Amino acid sequence: MTDPPLSPDHLSRARLRLRKTVPMRGVGSHLRRQAGQSLEFRDYRDYQLGDDIRRVDWRASARKGPARDWVLKLFEAEEQLNLMILVDDRAAMRLPDRAEKLLFALWALRALAHVAGEAGDSIVLARMFTSNSRIVSVSGRACASAAEAFAEDLWSSSAASLDATPVFEPNRLRRHLFPASVVVVLSDLLFADEDGSVGAFLKDAQKSWRQVIIQPLDTVDAELASLTTTGGVKVSDTEGRSFGDAVFTPDAQLVCDLRMRLDALRAAHENRWRGPGILYERPFVWPLPPDRTTLADHFRATFLTSGLFRAVTARGGVV
Question: Which of 91, 131, 179, 185 is deepest in the core (most CB within 10 A)?
Answer without folding.
Answer: 185
